[in-house]
Each structure stands twice: as C-alpha cells, then as structure tokens.
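Bumping with the actual sequence this time:
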Amino acid sequence: MRNKMQHDLQQKPITEQTAKRLTGLLSKTTVDQATTKSLEFAKKPVYTIQNSQVVAGIMGTVGLVMFALGVENFITNVIGLSSPYIEIVIGLILLSTSGLLLKKLV
C-alpha cells in the first residue's frame, strides 16, 4: 500500500511526443467568429475615447476629482492631519513640489 502511494506521488515526465501532440492540438484551435466580433465590439469604445479629446478630457477630469476627494476623505479621517492649517501646509508643499518638477520639465 505504501509503495503504491509513493508511486502515485511521483510525477511522470512529459515526453517529447506528448508535448508535440499538445502543441499541435492547441495550434489547431481557432477563434470562432462570435469571439472575434465580441473582441472588436469591446475595442470600439476604447478607440472612440482615444480619438476624442473631449471624452478623454472629461474622463481625466472626473478621475482627478475622484482622486482628490479620496485624498481629502483620507486626510479628514487621520486625526493628526485633520486640522485646516496642516492641510494648507501640505497643499502648499505639494504645489511647490509640482511647480519645481514642472519647471525642470519646461
């Protein structure tokens, strides 16, 4: 019984012939037309957003606003940072840092 369990636990090596058969089987599978249409349908909104500066700008603005609200809610919940004066100082530090970074880029 113990001998059989040890034999079952040992992994059998995959032979070259088995690997070739598996590769052949996987290469024969084709993507059906429904899947192709589904992929093309899913790509269409992405291309529309990439080609439209207005839609990309709106989405970017909404994302920035949501990020800012999340940071604001996080700072409000941290007891040490919830003072308005500390928030002003942190904001000035962030503005100064971003200004210095932009100055080096331009």
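The tokens above came from a reply further down the thread. Helices lie at 2-9, 16-28, 33-51, 53-77, 84-105.
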